[in-house]
Amino acid sequence: MTHPDDIAAVHKNSKTLVFDGFVRNLMAVMGVQPVTVDNLYHRPNKYEMTPAELNYNPGAKHFIDLTHDRYISQLSPGPRLDILKSRFLQYLDQELHIDRLCKASISPAGTPKTAKNISLLKMCRNVILTCNSNILFGESLFQIDPHLLENYCSFDDENWVMLYKMPRFFGKKVYEARRKLGQDFRAYLELPVSEREGAAGLVTESERGMRGLGMDESEMATQLFLVHWS
Known about the structure:
The chain is mainly alpha-helical.
């Protein structure tokens, strides 16, 4: 699109224009196997579903459509969003404490101990990522990996290398960050549910759906990472 007037037409045309091609490519780039991608897009036969499956998925939608519905349910005005907002503000209040903000310090040598130079970019990243991680997954991710923010920012800065399928030697840093993040989300899934308190419904429902499809935990970890990244 090269003209602002085209944007409204794109948003109105929800049937012809679809996002599935990008999503499929993104999952492939992140290492999800083609057969798994096909399973995620498989639309079940309504007449072969069990009563429990029909109750959970009355529209017989594929997993990706269900995930879209979960986002809408979680983020639309109402009790579920109110809970997220309340928790976000609690974590925001904690992260804006001066001791936490000093994590974003970039004070050069010789700066008086009573003064701190704070990187606005680093501060915003730290605050937003910490709050979002905690309201979506509870505090487990940071207990698993204290360096989560560092790895996430490395991935966020250079993920274009992966998206444009550049040779790995162009992006050793981003591939290593992606590997470590994958390990973190795999470790998260391996924790007992009792040790994963505070996870949002979007996350727990997605996990239940993926386990129902019989997905490998490494690929489940990739899907949860994409939920976090989105």
